[in-house]
Amino acid sequence: MSLDRGRPYLAIPGPSVMPDRVLAAMHRPSPNIYAGALPDMVETIRPDLREVAGTAGHVAIYIGNGHAGWEAAITNLFSRGEKALVLASGQFGLSWANAARGLGVEVEVMDFGRSAAADPARVEARLREDRAGEIKAVLVCHVDTASTVRADVPAIRAAMDAAGHPALLAVDCIASLGCDEYRMDDWGVDVTVAASQKGLMTPPGLAFLWFSPRAAERCRGADLRTPHWNWGPRAEAEEFWQLFHGTAPTHHLYGLREALTMILREEGLPAVWARHERLARAVWAAVEGWGAGNPAIRLNVADPGQRGRAVTSVLMGAPHATRLREWTETRAGVTLGIGLGMNSAEDPGADGFLRVAHMGHVNAHMTLGALAVMEAGMIALGIPHGEGGLRAAAEVVAGA
Ligand SMILES: *Cc1c(COP(=O)(O)O)cnc(C)c1O
């Protein structure tokens, strides 16, 4: 029988679950886009966006998804033929590299595989070799959403400084912002990219760039920049329309306003980070408990310090991950994430990965519920697993 009627739970790493308050804030007639409440409200959003990224620098808002944010960052950073060093720990790093290549940037990828973070020592060594200073910027995902590896951004900055290299540091925080601790200015990041639909709990459709005064200065002549992507007028608009290079994304902005209020003014960013940390640890404990009875079940990232707090990639042995995802969605109303970019589609191993998202508007009953449904699915499907998974997850939550 199916027990899927009731409120479904989309536990995929974006779009994330949206608070009803965010949905309600968007449910209104179109506002005047030239004067009045909307421009006034946007003036409150911009400082809050700086706060959520931990920067006093500039912020530019784009109508677009994360891929648009990637392209915005690249076009503002580079001139054709300039060089990017991309530190990849999974599919999203590789895709950002491809986006840069497609725009005419010369791209060098340092590939750290699919279950380990960038090694700062290797980054430092590579930058020391670049005596001519050809590398204009280092690009890295804070959390690679496919592998769920988390980079040590301060350590990468320290490696760049130790090498005495002038490259800018650009970080993709699309999966992590509003989930994992992130401090752009304290960590010495020059450009941060994010989007609305993950930790920021708003529908897909907004991308954000934060950039330091140093990046603004160093990239003044970037010739890949086009009028639409140009971060300058968006960050320092003289007229309201310039903030969005056209019509404002009216309803997304009302939703975002509500989400930022919930994150910054009500729960508070440190508490938001702590909640994601605790829920992530509950998921890790469950997987480790199941793995105790079946070595094929394990976390993709062995080192807890290198695991993202917003989403967790799990290995189960093919075809169990795909079977389990189908079961949880059709029998219990929980949709888990596919194992993106971990194996190719032709490889039967591709059915051996899944991802559990715990990003954004998620609380203990949602995460424990998803884990309990996974355990029920393993029982129903005869997937061998250790007995202690749920108990271990509950203990993590109980310690809260
Ligand atoms: C989701 C995500 C993207 C892509 O965002 P889209 O909105 O799907 O274009 C890029 N990078 C990371 C780290 C992500 O999590």
From TrEMBL:
<dbReference type="InterPro" id="IPR000192">
    <property type="entry name" value="Aminotrans_V_dom"/>
</dbReference>
<keyword id="KW-0808">Transferase</keyword>
<dbReference type="GO" id="GO:0019265">
    <property type="term" value="P:glycine biosynthetic process, by transamination of glyoxylate"/>
</dbReference>
<keyword id="KW-0032">Aminotransferase</keyword>
<protein>
    <submittedName>
        <fullName>Aminotransferase class V-fold PLP-dependent enzyme</fullName>
    </submittedName>
</protein>
<feature type="domain" description="Aminotransferase class V">
    <location>
        <begin position="35"/>
        <end position="327"/>
    </location>
</feature>
<dbReference type="InterPro" id="IPR015424">
    <property type="entry name" value="PyrdxlP-dep_Trfase"/>
</dbReference>
<dbReference type="InterPro" id="IPR015422">
    <property type="entry name" value="PyrdxlP-dep_Trfase_small"/>
</dbReference>
<dbReference type="InterPro" id="IPR015421">
    <property type="entry name" value="PyrdxlP-dep_Trfase_major"/>
</dbReference>
<feature type="modified residue" description="N6-(pyridoxal phosphate)lysine">
    <location>
        <position position="198"/>
    </location>
</feature>
<dbReference type="Pfam" id="PF00266">
    <property type="entry name" value="Aminotran_5"/>
</dbReference>
<dbReference type="GO" id="GO:0004760">
    <property type="term" value="F:L-serine-pyruvate transaminase activity"/>
</dbReference>
<dbReference type="GO" id="GO:0008453">
    <property type="term" value="F:alanine-glyoxylate transaminase activity"/>
</dbReference>
<keyword id="KW-0663">Pyridoxal phosphate</keyword>
<comment type="similarity">
    <text>Belongs to the class-V pyridoxal-phosphate-dependent aminotransferase family.</text>
</comment>
<feature type="binding site">
    <location>
        <position position="355"/>
    </location>
    <ligand>
        <name>substrate</name>
    </ligand>
</feature>
<dbReference type="InterPro" id="IPR024169">
    <property type="entry name" value="SP_NH2Trfase/AEP_transaminase"/>
</dbReference>
